[in-house]
Amino acid sequence: MTRRTAAAALGLLVLCACSALGRKPAWEQPPPPVAEGPIVPQQRLHRATLENGLEVLVLEDHRTPRLSVGITLRRGIAVEPLDRAGLASLTTEVMKRGAGSRDALALARAVEDIGASLSADAGWDSTGVGLSGLSGDADTLYALLADVVRRPRFDPAEVARARAETLQSLEQDKDEPEELLSRALDRVLYPDHRYGIPGDGDPRSLAHLDAHALREFHDRLFVPRNAIFHAVGDISADDALARARAAFGDWSGGPVPDPGPAPPAETPTARRIVVVDRPDLVQAQIALAHEGIARTDPDRIQAMLMNTVLGGGGFLSRLMTRARAEQGLTYSIGSGFSMRRHAGPFAVTTFTRVPEVGRVVSLVLEVLEGMKTSPPTEDEFRLAKSYNVGRFVLGFETSAAIAAGLIDLDVYGLPADSLDTYRTRVNATTREELADQARRLLHPERIAIVVVGPAEALRPQLAPFGAVEVVEP
Amino acid sequence: MPGRARRAALAAVLLCAAAAGRPSLAAPALQDPAAATQIAKLPNGLTVLTLVDPSTPAVSFQMWVRVGSKDEARYTGLAHLFEHMMFRGTDRIPPEAHERMISARGGEVNAFTTDDVTVFHSDVAPDSLPLVIELEAERVAHLKITDEVLSSERQVVLEERRLRTEDSPQGRAFESLLALTFVAHPYRVPTIGWRSDIEAVTAAVCRKFFETYYAPNNIVIAVAGSFDAADVKARIERAFGGLEPVQDIPRNPTKEPEQRGERREVVHMDLRSPILAAAWHAPKTGDPDGPALDVASGVLSGGRSSRLYRRLVYGEQQALAAEGAYWEMQEAGLFYAFAMVRPDGDIDRVERGFFDEIARLRREPVSAAELARAKRQIEVELIARSNTAHALAGRIAGDYVSFGRIRPLEERLAAYRAVTAADVQRVAQTYLIDDARSVVHVIAAPGARERGAPPPQPPGPVGPEIR
Which CATH superfamily, name and number, covers B38-240? Predict the structure, then answer.
C-alpha cells in the first residue's frame, strides 16, 4: 500500500506539473471534432464492366505480397423456394468438392499446395466464392476461381456426402444454446417465409436436394449479369483486369434471378413467448424480437443511431449500462437490426443465470418502452454519432474491408459513393429523427420473447408476460 | 498423384515469379513490417515498443502485463477477474467511463487473459492516442477496488464462465483436458478460474494482486500504426514515468513431472455430438522443435487435403471436424487432438483413427508433397498475418514478452523452411507417445437422452472480452 501511495503522490506531482503548464488530463479536454470526407482510396481503386455484364473491381495494395480474387453474386439464400431450403448453401459447399479436371481431393491439394484458401458461402442476399494466397500465384488463383465458379463437377457421391454432413451438423447445432435460440427465434418470426429456416436448410428440405437440383441452381445463380469480380492486393489494375477478362470474358448465362418474396410487414402480430426446453443448462439464452428494416430503408442511418443508444454501442448503450454495468446480470447484452434486402429481424439478445430471466426480460421491456417515451438525450445523441463515425473509419483499415464494403453497396443497389458520404449523412441527422425512429420501429407490446433453458424453472418467471409455449430443441 | 500435384504447383510458382517479376517465397527479399520497431526502457523498468506505419488510419496501443493464470497463488481466475476490475475506474474515472470515452471516439478498448499474460488493447484513430495513454496510466496508478464493484463484476465473470465453459461442450472438454494433462504445473487451472474461487475472492486479495504484478517493470507497452514516435514516447514517459517498480515479483516455481502412463477422463453432458480431446506434453515456446511440431499440425489438419480431414471427416465420415495442433506457452507446451464426433458417429472409432494417424507420423516420414504443402501454408499464414495495426502491435509485444526481442519474419520463415521429413518424424517419436497422452471424452450420460435424439478449439485466451 505504501508503494502505491508513493506512486499516487508522484502521479499527483506529475499532474500538478501539467496543470501548472495549463494541461488538463486528456479526458477533461473536449473530443476532437467529428471528421467528414471520403475514405475510399480512389487512386488505388479501378472499376470496369465486361461485355457480358460482369462488374470488375480491383483494389491495389502492394504493402504485402498477397492477393485475393473472388466472385460475388447479387443473390443468395433468399431466392430459394421454402421446400428447397438449403439449396444455396449445399451448392456452394459442393462447389468446393471438385471443379474442372479436379475431383475433391485434387482441388483441395491444388489450393493448399500454394498455401491458399478457398471459400464458397451463401448469405441471405449474396453468394461468394473467393481464393486468397500470394500474388506470385496469381495464375493459379485465377484459374482455380474460374474452375470453381464456372465448372463445378457436382459429383453425386460428393453431393450425398455433403448433404449427410449438413444433416449431422444441423443436429450438432442443438448442442449450442445460442444456435437453438436463433433457430427458435427465426421460426417464431417467419413461420411461412424463407427467413424462418436455417440458412443450411432443414432435414425435410434437404431430402429433396440432389446433384441435378444443385447444378440447375448453380446455372441459374452464377450468371455474369448477376456477378461482381474482385481482385484485392499486390497486383496492378491492368494485369488484374486482363486476367479477369481471360478467365471470365466468355462466361455467359441467363437473367438475374428473382430476389424472392418479402416477409410479412408485421411479425409477430401479438406477443408470443416460446421456451426451448434444455433442462441441463445453468444459463438461459434470451431474445426479444420483431420485424426490423431493410438494408435500403431510407431512414436506416437514423435507425442505426437510435439502436446505438438503445443497445448497439456496447457500454454507451442503455441496455449494457443497466443490465451489466449497474446490475451484473449478464456478461453481454445488445440489440441490432439484421438489414437484408427485405426487413430481417430486430432483436435484443442476452443471457443470464436461470433464476434471473424474469428480471432481465422485464428490464429489457422497460428499456424498450423508455426508448419510445424518453428520446435520446443531447449527450447520447452526440456519442452515438461520434461512435459510429469513428468506428466506421477504423473498420476500413484493410483493403479487404474496403472492397467488401463496396461490393455490399453493389449487391443492394445503393449509391457507389455511400462509404464516402457516410460520415456527412450521420452528422446531418437530428435528435428528433432518432426519437421518431424509436416510435416507428420498436414495439415492446407485441415483441416475441424466446428463451432457451430449463422450462420448469422458466415458466413461472415468464408467465407474467403472457402465455408460455414450451418446445423441444 | 501427390508428386504430380507438387510439380505442377512448383511450375506454377516459377512461372508466376517470372511473369509478374515479384519475388516468390524462395527469394528472401520480403519486407518485414515489424522491422522498424524501436525498443526503449524507462528508468522504472517499463518497456516501450513503437512501430510507425503511416499507411494505416489506425493506431493500436497495447499494454502487456506479465501475469496470467499460472501466477495465481490461491484464487484461480484472479488474473482474469482482475482484468475485468481494471475497467471499473479510479477516483477520477467512474466505472466503465474509460471504455465509454474510447467508444465515444469510435475506438475499441478491450482486454484478454491467458495462462501467461494479461493484455489491454485499444485500437483508435491517431488523435485519440493521448487519451488512451493517460487513461491507461491512470488505472495502473490509481485503480479503485471496492467490495461493491467487485461483487457486481464477480457476477459478470460467473456469467462469462457459464457461457464459455459450463454450458459449452468444447469449453468443458478443454477445461478437463488441461486439468488432466498437468498434474502439478498451474497450466492445469482454467484461466477463467474455478467457480468457487471466483465466488470467494475478496477486494483485499485483488488489491494485493494489483500491487504485486501491475508494476512498470512487469509491463510491456507496444504502439503500432500511424503516430509520431517521439511525441508518443514523451507522453508515455510523462504518464507512466512516476510509477515505482516492484522488487522480486513472484514467479511460478512448479515444473510438471514426467507423465508415466496414459490418463483418461469421461465428462457427461446433455449433447448429441461427442467430443474427443487429447494432449501430449510438448516443449515450451521458442524451442527449436517448435517449427517441426507446427509442420506436423499442418500435415494432420491443414485444410481438406490433410490426413485427419481425409480420414475422419471425408473418408470414414465419423467426425464433423478434427484437428491436431501444437500449442506453445511460456513454461510448457502441448500437442493437442480435438475431434467433434458426428451425432451418428462412434467416438471410439474416431479415437482409433486419430491415434492411428499419430502413430503413422512416428512410423514413417511424411511425403515430400505433404511436407512442402504444410510448410507453404505456414509461410503464407506468417506473411498474411500482420496487416493491421492491431496485429502488428500484438506481434511485437508477444515476441518481446516471450523472447526479449522481436523475431524477424525472415528468421521465422527460415526456421520453417529448414524442417525436414526426418524432423517431423523425430518430434512425433519424441513427444507424441502413447504412454504420455491424456484423453478426454465428453459424451452424453448413459440413459440421459430420452427425447428420441440419436445416441450419443482449444481455449484461446479468455476474452476478447465483450466490453
Answer: Metalloenzyme, LuxS/M16 peptidase-like (3.30.830.10)
